[in-house]
Design brief:
The complex is a heterodimer of chains A (267) and B (278).
Chain A lengths: L9 H18 L3 E6 L2 E7 L8 E5 L2 E7 L1 H21 L7 H18 L6 E7 L8 E5 L5 E4 L2 E4 L3 H11 L6 H12 L12 E7 L7 E4 L1 H12 L37
Antiparallel strand pairs in A: 1-2, 1-8, 2-9, 3-4, 4-5, 5-6, 6-7, 9-10
Helix pairs in contact in A: 4-5, 5-6
Chain B lengths: L1 H12 L6 H8 L21 E2 L2 E6 L2 E6 L3 E3 L2 E4 L5 E5 L2 E8 H22 L5 H14 L1 H5 L4 E9 L4 E8 L2 E6 L2 E4 L3 H11 L6 H18 L15 E6 L2 E4 L2 H17 L10
Antiparallel strand pairs in B: 1-4, 1-7, 2-3, 2-11, 3-12, 4-5, 6-7, 7-8, 8-9, 9-10, 12-13
Classes of the chains: A alpha+beta (267), B alpha+beta (278).
């Protein structure tokens, strides 16, 4: 029996799909997710104010993605539905990042094997715990493989170079300002200029917040946090937006419940 | 597993609308409140009922307060029930009527608001929130006709006006925006009478909280289904405050302070403060 014309071996097909997906993911800018003393920090250079790369999924769960927007947006929306329906059916505490990561893994894996084109995305699902040891960060790649990460994740763009720079700068239980500074330094090429605040998408999962732990950091507040980090003065709390509440001196600024609540209107 | 597979495909391919309720209706309609089309016998007296809720605006926000009693006929089924719910950072709702349906309605409404906010990256407008709740109340109309009436009271802080707003409903829906103050539940007539005399526009928070506690006291005074402050068990009314800083439920200690003031005054004058005639 002769090979039919146009035959592609399964190995070759998978390799081609994987190469295709990797190329797509490497085109964008990197996104950094890292632990800091009060939770998990997400930093993404993003020129668009409307198209988010970082999002809230549920009380303790955040989402970050790189790659094709329409693809990871549909994953994000599906994740929100999964979380909301489970939280409503059972209890809010029954929605976990592990369950969500499994769902994403199934879906990504299925798309990778069954469709002609794999998703050109890489995503992180992170859950903040009551203590740093309970934080969970899952990284999911285009083929549905899941990695349980500790400390930090860099994905998209020149991920390896950024991860290398980040590794030298992070330590355990960094204050928010230091963590932000480390992330921005890692995202900037040596000798390059840091992205302006208006082109940064930054959010935290802050374990000290009530109800929903996710909070976007933007505008003047983000500027102050970055300035404090760059001054290398980790022990000073950043000035508070409302002046209503700040932690005892020597603690990093609490990210809740005093600050701006981002309503997405881009103000 | 097969069923879950179908749902998962559906989950990512058909991203649907921003409404959580619509999604639940298509995915698992049994989870929604108000699913019984008809009941064999009226159950009104056997199912616990929640009673009086009051709300009033103050300078820069709105207060909502509720008593803690649930009754089933002449039986007090719960002494420390909570019937004022935080629905998001800037809004809350109180329920009167069938307790179980009301609690479920509050839960699904909470998710509804949050679902929209997470999907769209912005909060619904205050009117949008109020209309959405009207729709859910209307959905409960068949149940209400069977005696399982639930009526909410909705209060929110409106960013654009820097003021609190109150919306009331009837069994058919609504919303009806109320200016100043509003009350719902079996003791609402007495509470409304009290608020009518005690409410002052743009009064400071403390005055309005005190007025609400007085109104609840008057409701408990004349309505058997409304619970007064339980001094021996330290069960106080539930009081929520919404301002530009968001939703806050007053701590038991804070509420106790207000209740003690009211009790002290009522020891001397059981009918409470009198409004000046001229």
């Amino acid at each position: 029996m002769s090979m039919p014309f146009g035959y592609v071996s399964p190995e070759q097909e998978m390799r081609d799909k994987a190469d295709f997906a990797r190329k797509g993911i490497a085109r964008g800018r990197s996104v950094v997710v890292l632990q800091y003393e009060n939770g998990i920090l997400f930093v993404a250079p993003n020129a668009s104010r409307a198209l988010h790369k970082i999002s809230e999924i549920y009380d303790r769960i955040g989402f970050a993605a790189v790659g094709k927007y329409n693809e990871f947006e549909s994953l994000r929306l599906g994740g929100i539905r999964y979380a909301d329906i489970n939280g409503y059916t059972y209890d809010r505490s029954d929605v976990t990042a592990r369950g969500l990561a499994n769902l994403y893994a199934q879906s990504l894996g299925m798309v990778f094997t069954e469709s002609r084109k794999p998703y050109e995305v890489e995503i992180v699902v992170a859950e903040v715990g009551d203590a740093p040891e309970e934080d969970q960060i899952y990284r999911l790649t285009f083929d549905g493989s899941v990695a349980d990460e500790h400390g930090f994740v860099v994905m998209g763009g020149v991920a390896e170079a950024v991860a290398g720079r980040l590794k030298d700068r992070i330590r355990d239980a960094m204050p928010l300002t230091d963590a932000l500074d480390a992330a921005l330094a890692a995202l900037t090429e040596p000798g390059g200029e840091r992205p302006p605040v208006s082109q940064l998408e930054v959010a935290v999962l802050d374990r000290n917040r009530e109800h929903r732990k996710f909070q976007r950091l933007a505008g003047p507040r983000l500027e102050r946090l970055i300035a404090t980090g760059a001054d290398d003065a980790p022990e000073t709390a950043a000035p508070d937006v409302s002046g209503a509440l700040s932690g005892p001196p020597g603690e990093s600024p609490a990210t809740a419940p005093d600050g701006d609540i981002d309503d997405g209107s881009g103000a | 597993m097969a069923a879950q597979r179908d749902w998962m495909n559906h989950l990512f391919l058909d991203t649907g609308s921003t409404s959580f309720t619509e999604f639940v209706r298509s995915y698992a309609p049994g989870l929604l409140p108000g699913r019984f089309e008809s009941l064999a016998t009226p159950v009104t007296d056997q199912i616990p009922h929640a009673t009086t809720i009051v709300a009033a605006t103050f300078a820069g926000g709105v207060v909502m307060a509720g008593d803690r009693r649930a009754t089933a006929g002449n039986y007090i089924s719960q002494k420390d029930m909570e019937k004022v719910f935080r629905t998001d950072d800037y809004s809350c709702m109180g329920i009167a009527g069938t307790a179980s349906t009301g609690i479920e309605m509050a839960r699904v409404y909470q998710v509804e608001l949050e679902h929209y906010e997470k999907r769209e990256g912005r909060e619904l407008s205050v009117e949008g929130k109020a209309n959405r709740l009207a729709n859910m109340v209307r959905g409960n109309l068949p149940m209400a006709m069977q005696g399982m009436v639930v009526v909410p009271l909705f209060a929110a802080y409106d960013d654009n006006r820097d003021a609190g707003r109150i919306f009331s409903y009837d069994v058919g829906g609504g919303p009806y925006e109320q200016s100043g103050y509003a009350s719902i539940g079996s003791g609402s007539l007495f509470a409304r009478g009290a608020l009518k005399k005690l409410y002052r526009e743009n009064a400071p928070l403390e005055d309005i909280v005190l007025s609400c506690v007085h109104a609840l006291y008057d409701a408990a005074d004349d309505d058997s289904a409304t619970g007064g402050p339980d001094v021996s068990r330290k069960i106080w009314p539930l009081i929520s405050v919404i301002t530009d800083e968001g939703y806050r439920r007053l701590s038991d200690e804070e509420v106790e302070g207000y209740v003690r003031q009211v009790l002290d005054l009522r020891m001397a004058d059981p009918d409470g403060p009198t409004a000046p005639l001229r």
